[in-house]
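Hey, can you fold this one?
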Amino acid sequence: MEASALGRRRRRGWRRAPAAGSPLTRAAVVLLLSAFVARATPSVKVYVMLHQKSPHVLCVTPRLRNSEMIDPSFQWHGPRGKIISENSTAQVTSTGSLIFQNFEEGMSGVYTCFLEYKPTVEEIVKNLQLKYVIYAYREPHYYYQFTARYHAAPCNSIYNISFEKKLLQILSKLVLDLSCEVSLLKSECHRVKMQRAGLQNELFFTFSVSSLDTEKGPKPCTDHSCESSKRLSKAKNLIERFFNQQIEVLGRRAEPLPEIYYIEGTLQMVWINRCFPGYGMNTLKHPKCPECCVICSPGSYNPRDGTHCLQCNSSLAFGAKACV
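Sure. Predicted structure:
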């Protein structure tokens, strides 16, 4: 009886240690992970226009920028490893800022700056890590698409082909000084039944007007007025004026109308913007550059001149133009 009572007292006084998978241990792990995540530095997105100089990418926080630091030491690492200040394309200034002189497509990626400093002489060295994702971007490929109709010769007539070539030559010469080009997209001849009249032959033209690279155009231009959108706007005005002048000339004509002439009111225009292959627009992902064609991130691609990057899980590089 005494032995049994002693055993019961011992059992009541004994408490089992928590098992490895107990709720207490799991809570401790979650707390530890939460503390680690809270200290993780979020990445900052930076956008640099292709083939242009970048802004200064700082290796300090906004608070430290206006604070005194003793013996600061800066070290940058990018997609290709450590960046040294003597690099010709990427330079690190004496204050730790990263600058690109001529940003290339392949420079896009994650850049990390490691900062060591002392707040005061007496304090210990502090370490800071700043992470950036730097994206190349370029202007959208803007262009105007025009459609126009002409009264024509019989559809099998060689005069229609000759007129088409002459019209394109005139339009191309019209916008040449603006570093723009005219491209014929479609030309068709149809027989059209007119209201309360008979059949007539008509030429249906569809052509585009786009801007050329100003460095490759016949007259290289670096002026602010040479921006793609401004040059295109001027080209559009010239083309509209050209078609209006055709109407004015026909109105003053005393002789019978020529066989091929512009049909008043048929000129239509659409403004189109596209991104080059490997680039796309995404207002949700890039809210600070909503109208930019930003290089496609890993996991996406743009194979043609579409507007958006498409999902591709096998794509591991920036600027992918194919999903392989």
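The domain at 144-274 is CATH 3.30.70 (Alpha-Beta Plaits). Let me know if you want another pass with a different chain boundary.
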